[in-house]
């Protein structure tokens, strides 16, 4: 779970395959939400620190991570595209 200013912003389900994102305004693109990039960066930092191990996000809010608008934020945070999804190794 990633909180930004005390509000739930990201939730990674058990196993790390599914990520749920709560943008400030559901009608805006994820790349326009000022909270989502810092949240993606915090998730990547937790994975790099060894808290999560290797993470492969396959789905974000029900869509493929590789084609999700949120996928670009994960890639900017250091996740790498693989055939299964977006991966970050510890």
Strand order, sheet with most strands: 1-2-3-5-6
Please provide the count of β strands: 8
Instruction: Please report which band the strand proportion falls in: under 5%, 5-15%, 15-25%, 25-35%, 35-45% or over 45%.
Output: 25-35%
Cα-based radius of gyration, to the nearest Å: 12 Å
Taking all residues together, what is the mean pLDDT?
91
Task: Identify the quaternary structure here.
Answer: single chain
Tally of alpha and pi helices: 2
Report the structural category.
alpha+beta
Overall shape: it is globular
Descriptive key words:
90 residues; alpha+beta; five-stranded mixed sheet; three-stranded antiparallel sheet; 2 helices; 8 strands; globular
Describe the structure.
With 90 residues, this protein is an alpha+beta fold. It is built from 2 helices and 8 strands, in the order E-E-E-H-E-E-E-H-E-E. Strands 1-2-3-5-6 form a 5-stranded mixed sheet, covered by helices on one side. A 3-stranded antiparallel sheet has the order 4-8-7. A hairpin with a 2-residue loop joins strand 5 and strand 6. The mean pLDDT is 91.
Could you write a compact summary of the structure shown?
The chain is α+β, with helices and mostly antiparallel strands. It has helices spanning 36-48, 71-76, and strands at residues 2-4, 7-12, 18-21, 55-57, 59-60, 63-64, 80-81, 86-88. The chain contains two helices and eight strands, in the order E-E-E-H-E-E-E-H-E-E.
Topology diagram in text:
Blueprint: E1 2-4, E2 7-12, E3 18-21, H1 36-48, E4 55-57, E5 59-60, E6 63-64, H2 71-76, E7 80-81, E8 86-88
Parallel strand pairs: 3-5
Antiparallel strand pairs: 1-2, 2-3, 4-8, 5-6, 7-8
């Amino acid at each position: 779970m990633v909180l930004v200013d005390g509000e739930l912003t990201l939730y990674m389900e058990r196993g790390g395959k599914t990520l749920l994102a709560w943008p400030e305004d559901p009608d805006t693109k994820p790349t326009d939400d000022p909270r989502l990039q810092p949240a993606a960066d915090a998730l990547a930092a937790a994975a790099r620190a060894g808290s999560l191990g290797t993470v492969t996000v396959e789905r974000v809010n029900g869509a493929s991570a590789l084609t999700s608008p949120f996928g670009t934020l994960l890639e900017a945070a250091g996740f790498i595209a693989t055939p299964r999804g977006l991966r970050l190794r510890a």
